[in-house]
Amino acid sequence: MNLHFSKTKLANGLRIITAPMHDTHAVAVLILVKVGSRYETDEQAGLSHFLEHMFFKGTKRRPSYLDVSKELDGLGANFNAFTSEELTGFFVQTAADHFHDALDILADMLLEGTLPETEVAKERGVITEELNMYLDMPQSHVADLAKKLQFGKNPLGRPVIGTRSTIQATTRPQLLDYKHNFYQPSAMVVAVAGAGDQGSWVKKIASYFGSLKDNPRRQYQHFAQYQKTAQVVLGSRKTDQAHFVITLPSLPRNDDRRYALKAATNLLGGMMSSRLFDEIREKRGLAYYVNASVEEYEDTGALYVRAGVPVPKIEQAIEVVVKELKKLTNQKVGKDELARSKENIKGRTYLDLEDSLSVAQFLAEQELLLDKLEQPDELVAKVAAVKDSDILELCSQLIKRQHFNLAIVGPYKNREHFLKIINS
């Protein structure tokens, strides 16, 4: 599978990626900014996410949230925004003949957003309730505990949303200053995918963003792996189901070994025929959900295993996970199992790119985070080239007893008990 795309770089550093697609009447416009929670100081925790919310609150031409949302709804658009540790994104996906309207609204929001003081005050309450929602969800809460355990005091260890105190302390001047500092054109990519004319897209985008001036930005605090012993954290609360996450240090997103890790993680817990799904759900009936995944950042990464299990059987489930992780360090993966994992990744890669928004995001994230663009076929080929020896060598380097981290939400208080299990 080869995508047809073009890249244009404006004089101010802003990059434009255009990908015409046949057999669709839709178009997706995505603006990615290279900023997220890891760029924040402790006092600024949650500012990236708060600012993302505020861009929808009105502009000079569209004075209120309702003016923005009514216009987008009138386009029949799928629209939203998101914030992660390293990215903030805004998108509109709509009928192709509404491209100019979609771009106009997005550009107006980002360039002319007024961030009204009254809306900032209200949004403190909204985002606090969003935080409360996540804290009330054990799966979400345990993930935050695991991040903090894995990354410690580094900003990567904080929840993207921030804390109650920083959310309540957020002010309009703070938000304006943060936008001024980080929303620089050289740290932005505008991607368009779908039906339409590339030349027209580029000219229109340049007319909105070409006059922006580019200024230096503050860099984030890099993460240095410092862990020397296994760690456990308990989020003690009365629950009907225990939720746990095991994390291990992993690879940054530009490490060539990430394809071997992708294949290994997939066969460990990324498929319905994966080892963890088979051992924990099918053979023992211990979980409805169990999975393994990898988070990649510019300078580091983390491998996560998650599960929700019966409260009395959490020890058994953790023991199985630890056993399966260690097995990757001392036994080569079988030929058929590895082939199945590779084909699964191939299939999902291609299926994920059937949609215009997915194509725009696939290209924009590569450009912004890796500073290069690769075809889906190239990525699939790199996974296909992974050998069993590659997985064995990599896992023996990454999966070490002293690097295990275990976060649990459930009715438990004896941390030392669980520490013995992961140290066994």
Q: How would you characterize this protein structure?
A:
The protein has a 6-stranded mixed sheet with strand order 1-2-6-3-5-4, with helices on both faces. The chain has helices at residues 47-54, 65-74, 99-112, 117-136, 138-151, 164-169, 172-182, 198-209, 258-269, 275-283, 314-330, 335-352, 356-370, 376-384, 388-398, 415-422, and strands at 6-9, 15-20, 26-33, 78-83, 88-95, 188-194, 231-236, 241-249, 290-296, 301-310, 405-410. Helix 3 (99-112) packs parallel to helix 8, helix 9 (258-269) packs across helix 15 and helix 11 (314-330) packs across helix 15. The protein folds into 2 domains: 6-209, Cytochrome Bc1 Complex, Chain A, domain 1 (2-Layer Sandwich); 231-422, Cytochrome Bc1 Complex, Chain A, domain 1 (2-Layer Sandwich). The chain is built from 16 helices and 11 strands. It starts with 5 loop residues before the first strand and ends with a helix. It is of the alpha+beta class and 424 residues long.
